[in-house]
Amino acid sequence: MEPKKNPKKDLNNRSSLYFVLGLLLVMCLALIALEWKTYDSENIYDISMNITPSEIEEDPIEKFKVEKPKIKQVLPPEIKIEEDNVEIEETEILSSEVNKDTKILEPEDIEVEEAEEEVHVNWITIEEVPVFPGCENAKDKRACFNEMIQKHIQKNFRYPEIAQEMGIQGRVSTQFVIKNDGSIGAILKRGPHTILEEEATRILSKLPKMTPGKQRGTPVKVSFSIPINFKLQ
């Protein structure tokens, strides 16, 4: 026996309509949710700023006395009025032009002063080396000079603190001149940093006055080179 179906009570006939209505309802709810706005009920301003003018404490106003700058009065130079009877000495300007009265000097009458040529000798080629104080009676004055120079550097050596902090070290090549009067002249230096160069210059500038070197019995300038090592421990 076949079951009988009432076509008016078949729900499948309106399923597409229900689907569309449900879809519209969901879209409306989503739109309302996105456009929904809420506001905070709390105040957005700082209440602590709502102070009446009477409650504000005014700082006392200090009055300063402004002194006028003192202007130093400069008096004009005194003008001395001379009388008409005073004689005025006039400076005579000699003419440099040659005339018939000009005396012509003969070559024999002209004395020429010869300027002495200053001799500068190297330490290696000098005949008599400069003598360091205390080496006057030494047999080998060169060896004594080198030994006394080393002692002088060790005595006056001081490693600059800035160079220690910066980790600067190295060798400074120096060259100085022992002038013909025994004093120390120009000091040339070249090293890894100016701090070490200045320290080397300070050490050599403390050298004492020496007996000057001689070339053919005449005191002359002598150049001497020595390196100074700065090494961190």
TrEMBL record:
Signal peptide region: none
Lipid bilayer topology: Single-pass membrane protein
Keywords noted in UniProt: Cell inner membrane, Cell membrane, Membrane, Protein transport, Transmembrane, Transmembrane helix, Transport
Residue ranges of the TM segments: 16-34
Cellular location(s): Cell inner membrane
Pfam families membership: TonB_C (PF03544)
Major subcellular site: membrane
Annotated TonB C-terminal domain residues: 144-233
Database matches in InterPro entries: TonB-dependent_transducer, TonB/TolA_C, TonB_C
PANTHER family named in the record: PROTEIN TONB, PROTEIN TONB-RELATED
Protein family (similarity comment): Belongs to the TonB family.
Protein known as: TonB family protein
